Automatic annotation (TrEMBL), chain B:
Residues 256-270 have a biased composition (Low complexity). Coiled coil: none annotated. Keywords: 2Fe-2S, 4Fe-4S, Iron, Iron-sulfur, Metal-binding, Oxidoreductase. GO terms for cellular component: plasma membrane. Pathway: Carbohydrate metabolism; tricarboxylic acid cycle. PANTHER family: SUCCINATE DEHYDROGENASE [UBIQUINONE] IRON-SULFUR SUBUNIT, MITOCHONDRIAL, SUCCINATE DEHYDROGENASE IRON-SULFUR PROTEIN. Belongs to the succinate dehydrogenase/fumarate reductase iron-sulfur protein family. It holds the Pfam family Fer2_3. GO terms for biological process: respiratory electron transport chain; tricarboxylic acid cycle. Residues 5-92 form the 2Fe-2S ferredoxin-type domain. This is Succinate dehydrogenase/fumarate reductase iron-sulfur subunit. Residues 253-287, 304-334 are annotated as: Disordered. The lineage of its organism: Bacteria, Bacillati, Actinomycetota, Actinomycetes, Micromonosporales.
UniProtKB/TrEMBL annotation, chain C:
It comes from Dactylosporangium siamense. Substrate binds at residues 249, 265, 423. FAD binds at residues 15-20, 38-53, 228, 388, 413, 428-429. Its cofactor is FAD. SUPFAM superfamilies: FAD/NAD(P)-binding domain (SSF51905), Succinate dehydrogenase/fumarate reductase flavoprotein C-terminal domain (SSF46977), Succinate dehydrogenase/fumarate reductase flavoprotein, catalytic domain (SSF56425). GO terms for molecular function: steroid dehydrogenase activity, acting on the CH-CH group of donors. It comes from the Bacteria. The keyword Oxidoreductase applies. This is Succinate dehydrogenase flavoprotein subunit. The active site is at residue 322. Residues 10-429 form the FAD-dependent oxidoreductase 2 FAD-binding domain. Keywords: FAD, Flavoprotein, Oxidoreductase. Residues 484-598 form the Fumarate reductase/succinate dehydrogenase flavoprotein-like C-terminal domain.
Length: 274, 334, 621
């Protein structure tokens, strides 16, 4: 058996690199993608902040729509009817702290530590690097080896939380089938909430952590045929993780904005029936 | 049939160099490497370029074409406009030798530092049994042609030379993943090694390695992230930890971690004989003038002296040892 | 005096392909200090190009397979010109060599019960090729490379130095071997990178340098294949056999240049592809030999019906045996009805809908799309015979792989005899492993016996002068690229797949002229990574090997396996008993006849008498 070999000599001592004065010789529009991502994620963050501070228009009582940003609503300050089976375990909050801020930590953390979003914001916000073969412009670089970025490893915890969040959003989507006059009913909001729930699940279950837990960590697939199949399914979702990340990001904004508009009575919900 | 195209090729060596302009004929269906060869045959017979199979299978002709790391033999001229200038430079991350040829020894050094496949004990050649589904993941990584484009593009070392000693690079993360997922590899500490020795934590998964891979290996999604997750399994995950406690089994591997087996503390305590006088450290060999010999040339033996003294013979007689081997546990263990 | 780096090794292995690496592993395992010399980077050797697999009678897929069957197939493939003992050892030992690779970490494709999967291949009676998709060669070289690294790690643990007992000299070319008192004493070469000279003092040298394809205009071989090992062996006084046998594939791409030489699989023709000349004529109908007349269609209509209804129609003439197709293409091109690049058109685009082509020939479609942006669904391909493998090589002892000079060993494509007149697909990878191991083992034993040797200073100085000569002439000399081009032209046109007496004689004259000009080759620039200089030094190797091929091809007045004479189209049992042996007489190649070793009776008993009768003369039977 071999032992871990020590380093022979400094790897960098071999000589200078080619003296090319241009920082990058890329001729394509390599800056376009990071720019778009910057704008997209920036817009989401701004919207999220505004909505979280707003602290109203999140419950459309007649239609039984709960805005995803405020779901579940866990504090005593939640408007009547907006809290569901989880109750209101958290006491009255100071007025500057909305119920959204409490709950957004979970999906926010999940996305913040997500392997796809990490790529996206390291590139477009931190410029590390902005694009392939374009210098990252930082003096030193230690990656995710130390504080604070070593905390990216808690993605696993957020994944478990995200399963709860996904379940609650599913519950919300089911509640939205509540008819205006009691019984079963369906409006455009019902559809939007349902689509949103599906996309959130597709994003959550396609997560790299999930892929590892469900089967990726196994050494012998052949001994665990069921988990191997599950791993295969998750791998398919995982291959589209980037697309689902964006789709669910937009769907959650759309769903939230729609509920807000209905709740604030800026628009009336389009009802398919009841 | 051919058209004249404008090429800029970096020429020079470790003392410096610059982009030189060439007008060169390009025919239909040619790749960049063909054009470089035409330059060699017609204008610059000593233009240095590394190449071999010319079919995208050996990974020799790595270069940067219009700033992007590519294989010269896999970059077709038809991907450029007729009027476009094509700029060809050597790989930036490695020391240049001459023109388009760089010194890629960094990679060969890193390859040596990664423990090789550890064959399972007691399985004779010809008795290896593996299922196709179990070898498929590792097979993907074994497609690697070692063009080192991923190593070149990775900003961890491309932009930060100082990280080279601590960071092995994507090529060797897929090698680590390949071995960790190998159904019969006998080592179980590859995740720890990837984190501690290879610098897995330096990777911030910006996926440039995957983007440039000519073999289309999903380096980030299938190797680096799973390795990161496997480290998380061992070190950070609460549920796995709980599951292991409750079910007393480990689905991850068949054995617990033992990167470097340490004797149990209690056994070591009771088993050591600290009163024993250890061997006296030897003094370093000195020259006639009573000073340390600096030059290896004048020393009577190759390489540096032994830290234990050159006249110390191993193994030491057991009675001189301060350490006593613990006897195997009896009864109920712990 | 020029600065020369000196090294002393027990065993020096020249060539870092499959055979070289396997030999080095064996020599190191025998405890010998071993050097591996590689012309390119470590792990880039031409072995990576092998796609099909490695033939070994493991019997994993069909349990009826065993070494006797494999031996029989090999002998048949080589038209009984093989060195029977090599074929026997190869068939017997191949399975162990493959299994050994698994302990080094190789991951072959698996069968259902977890064993190594084996696939069918032309000429093999049972599924026999261990494979990994279509990149078996890469798997092989990577595995051996990683085994060497693992041995280096063991040495590091023991000695604190990775290179204590096995070292790879990358991008280093050997230009001269030294022989003193009839035995090898060292090797001399230069680092491509710096142009610095390096000398290896050693009593045992293993040649594993591969083939000679770069002497041909259209070849599937890489630039390394300049016949270095063949030429080095000749110059030390060793001998080559069977140099007239080269494996050509009738349809290799000739244009565009980016895919020149790459094979176009026969299934393109099997799926409906037809060959046309530049006049648009489907010419194969004119080339059906009388013996095949009955089995092949006479009209285009009938031929086209065969694809959908093979039972009631005769086969299209595009599916004639390889040499017939090659001969036809050759004749068309020589008659001026070929394309400018020297090929004919292989048209599948107008025969099948694009979607069908993509479905039936996915790898072909992608290969051309990716490498050359050629859409085979839209335009015909330009194809011609491409040089693929040389059966001939250094004459070696079957068991020890020792060449005629003491201390010189050879394995892999550079050695001759194993494959006879034609090699079966898949046998080259197993050949590398079987004889690579034997070469390493016996080289180590030889080094053990002899100890270390040292070449004389005068010989080294002469080698330096030879190496520096082209640089001294600089621009005043002949351009190496031009000379190389002319050599390829001569070999491609005159000593190609179909050979004729007159053309071969012409080639010998022209090669002699070229030899004089190669002596005057000159290159500008310095020694540091100067490809012009490298080519200039390789040229003389290519030239002497080409001369062997041309002379042997002229001498052998029959057609057999990889040697087709238009003026002697039949196989002649009398020639089966003869190996043509090349050696160097001053600067010229000397050719001698040598009887083939006679197969042992129990091996002969593996064949039916009627089959042997096809190959052997009456008195042999």
């Amino acid at each position: 058996m071999t032992t871990t070999p020590a380093r022979l000599r400094s790897a960098s001592g071999a000589g200078p690199r080619a003296a090319i004065s241009e920082k990058t010789l890329r001729t394509d529009r390599w800056w376009l993608q990071p720019l778009l991502v910057f704008l997209g994620l920036g817009a989401f963050v701004v919207y999220g902040l505004v909505r979280a501070i707003m602290n109203k228009y999140y419950w459309a009582s007649a239609e039984h729509y709960l805005a995803p940003f405020y779901s579940p609503c866990l504090t005593k300050s939640c408007v009547e009817g907006s809290s569901h089976f989880l109750g209101q375990p958290i006491p009255q909050l100071p007025s500057w702290l909305s119920p959204a801020m409490i709950i957004l930590v979970l999906p926010g953390g999940f996305r913040l530590t997500c392997y796809y979003y990490r790529k996206a914001y390291y590139r477009s916000f931190w410029l590390s690097p902005p694009a392939c073969a374009v210098p990252d412009g930082h003096k030193t670089y230690s990656g995710e080896t130390r504080f604070p970025l070593i905390f990216q490893n808690i993605h696993r915890y957020f994944f478990y939380a995200a399963i709860l969040v996904g379940s609650v959003l599913t519950y919300d989507a089911v509640l939205a089938w509540h008819g205006k006059d009691g019984g079963v009913g369906m409006g455009l909001g019902t559809l939007i909430l349902a689509v949103n729930a599906v996309l959130i699940w597709a994003y959550t279950l396609g997560c790299h952590s999930c892929r590892n837990i469900i089967g990726g960590r196994l050494k012998h697939f052949s001994k665990h045929p069921v988990r191997y199949r599950a791993w295969g399914l998750v791998s398919k979702l995982n291959a589209k993780h980037q697309q689902f990340a964006w789709a669910s990001l937009f769907s959650v904004i759309i769903a939230d904005a729609y509920v807000m508009a209905v709740s604030a009575e800026w628009i009336t919900d389009f009802r398919f029936f009841n | 049939m051919g058209t004249k195209r404008h090429f800029r090729v970096w020429r020079g060596d470790d003392t410096g160099g610059s982009l030189e302009d060439f007008q060169v004929e390009v025919n239909e269906g040619e790749v960049v490497l063909d054009v470089i060869h035409r330059l060699q045959a017609t204008q610059t017979p000593d233009l240095a370029v590394r190449w071999n199979c010319k079919a995208g299978k050996c990974g020799s002709c790595s270069m940067e074409i219009n700033g992007k790391p590519r294989l010269g033999c896999m970059t077709r001229m038809s991907t450029f406009n007729e009027t476009e200038t094509v700029t060809v430079t050597p790989l930036r991350t490695f020391p240049v030798i001459r023109d388009l040829v760089t010194n890629v020894n960094f990679n060969y050094q890193k390859a040596r530092e990664l423990p090789a496949f550890a064959p399972p004990a007691g399985v004779a050649p010809g008795e290896y049994r593996m299922q196709q589904v179990d070898v498929e993941r590792s097979q993907e990584f074994r497609k690697c042609i070692e063009c080192f484009l991923c190593q070149n593009v990775c900003h961890v070392i491309r932009d930060h030379e100082e990280n080279k000693h601590a960071f092995s690079g994507p090529r060797f993360f897929i090698r680590a993943a390949e071995l960790d997922m190998h159904p019969l590899d006998a080592r179980d500490d590859r995740k720890e090694l990837a984190q501690a020795e290879q610098g897995l934590g330096y990777c911030n998964i910006t996926k440039c390695c995957t983007e440039v891979c000519p073999e289309h290996i999903k380096i980030t999604d299938n190797a680096i992230i799973p390795m990161k997750e496997r480290v998380v399994d061992r070190r950070y995950d609460p549920v796995t930890w709980l599951g292991r406690k409750i079910f007393r089994r480990d689905q991850l591997d068949e054995q617990p971690v033992s990167a470097s087996p340490k004797p149990a503390a209690a056994a070591a305590d009771s088993g050591s004989n600290w009163h024993q006088e250890g061997p006296v450290p030897q003094e370093a060999p000195v020259g006639a003038d009573g000073k340390l010999v600096v030059a290896e040339l004048t020393l009577d033996r190759a390489a540096a002296g032994s830290p234990f003294g050159d006249d110390q013979v191993f193994p030491l007689p057991p009675e001189q040892l301060r350490y006593q081997h613990p006897s195997p546990p009896t009864g109920d263990g712990h | 005096m020029t600065n020369i780096e000196r090294h002393t090794y027990d065993v020096v292995v020249i060539g870092a392909g499959g055979a070289g690496l396997r030999a080095a592993i064996e020599a190191r395992l025998a405890g010998k200090k071993t050097a591996i010399i590689s012309k390119s980077l470590f792990g880039k050797a031409h072995t990576v190009m092998a796609e099909g697999g490695a033939a070994a009678a493991m019997g994993n897929v069909n349990s009826k397979d065993n070494w006797q069957v494999h031996f029989r197939d090999t002998m048949r493939g080589g038209k009984f010109l093989n060195n029977f003992r090599m074929a026997e050892l190869h068939a017997k030992e191949a399975p162990s060599r493959i299994w050994e690779l698994e302990t080094y970490g190789a991951l072959f494709d698996r069968t259902k019960d977890g064993k190594i999967s084996q696939r069918n291949f032309g000429g093999h009676e049972y599924p026999r090729l261990a494979h990994v998709g279509d990149r078996t060669g890469l798997e092989l070289i990577r595995t051996l490379q990683q085994k060497i690294v693992s041995l280096q790690q063991e040495d590091f643990a023991e000695h604190g130095d990775y290179e204590a007992r096995i070292r790879v000299f990358q991008e280093c070319t050997i230009t001269e071997l030294f022989v003193e008192d009839g035995a090898v004493s060292g090797a001399f070469g230069y680092y491509r990178e710096s142009g610095d000279f390096v000398l290896f003092e050693s009593a045992a040298i293993v040649l594993a340098t591969g083939g000679v394809g770069k002497s041909y205009k259209v070849t599937s071989n890489s630039w390394e294949y300049t016949g270095d090992g063949h030429a080095l062996a000749l110059r030390t006084g060793a001998t080559l056999i069977n140099m007239e046998f080269l494996q050509f594939h009738p349809t290799g791409m000739v244009w565009p240049p980016s895919v020149k030489g790459i094979l176009v699989t026969e299934s393109v023709r099997g799926d409906g592809g037809v060959l046309r000349n530049t006049e648009g004529k489907r010419f194969m109908f004119d080339y059906v030999p009388d013996v095949f007349r009955k089995q092949y269609a006479e009209t285009e209509e009938e031929a086209d019906r065969w694809y959908s209804d093979p039972d009631n129609n005769r086969r299209p003439p595009e599916l004639l045996p390889r040499d017939e197709v090659a001969r036809a293409i050759n004749s068309e091109v020589k008659a001026g009805r070929g394309t400018k690049a020297g090929g004919v058109l292989l048209d599948i685009a107008s025969r099948l809908p694009a979607e069908q082509i993509r479905k039936r020939l996915p790898s072909m479609y992608h290969q051309f799309k990716e490498l050359a942006d050629v859409d085979i669904t839209a335009a015909p391909m330009e194809v011609g015979p491409t040089c693929h493998y040389v059966m001939g090589g250094i004459e070696v002892d079957a068991d020890t792989t020792a060449a005629a000079v003491a201390g010189l060993f050879a394995a892999g494509e550079v050695s001759g005899g194993m494959h006879g007149s034609n090699r079966l697909g898949g046998n080259s990878l197993s050949d590398l492993l079987v004889f690579g191991k034997r070469a390493g083992e016996h080289a180590a034993a030889h080094a053990e016996k002899i100890g270390r040797r040292k070449p004389s200073a005068a010989a080294v100085e002469a080698a330096v002068d030879t190496a520096l000569a082209p640089l001294a002439r600089a621009d005043a000399g002949e351009n190496p690229y031009t000379l190389h081009h002319e050599l390829q032209e001569i070999m491609g046109v005159l000593v190609g797949i179909i050979r004729r007496d007159g053309e071969l004689r012409e080639s010998i004259t022209r090669l002699a002229e070229l030899k004089e000009r190669v002596k005057k080759v000159g290159v500008s620039g310095g020694r540091k990574y100067n490809p012009g200089w490298h080519l200039a030094l390789d040229l003389r190797n290519m030239l002497v090997v080409s001369e062997c091929t041309a002379k042997a091809a002229l001498e052998r007045t029959e057609s057999r396996g990889g040697h087709t004479r238009e003026d002697f189209p039949k196989m002649d049992p009398k020639w089966r008993k003869v190996n043509l042996v090349c050696s160097l007489d001053g600067e010229d190649v000397r050719l001698e006849h040598q009887p083939l070793p006679v197969m042992r009776p129990e091996l002969q008993g593996l064949f039916e008498q009627t089959e042997l009768a096809k190959y052997m003369t009456d008195e042999e039977l």
